[in-house]
Amino acid sequence: MNESVFAWPGIGSLTVEALNARDYPVLQGIFLLLGASIVAANLLADVAYGILDPRVR
Fold this sequence. Notes:
mainly alpha, 2 helices, about 70% helix, elongated
């Protein structure tokens, strides 16, 4: 199971390695990054929806 794009290891393999090594600060950083990106994507979708559909305003 090797995940890489242009020979760069991905965040999934980093998560698995951190889980195996019990590296909790790395796991906290990964979960913070993923959570923040989900919140940012939802905010961007809400703003775009308000701009594209004037009935929502």
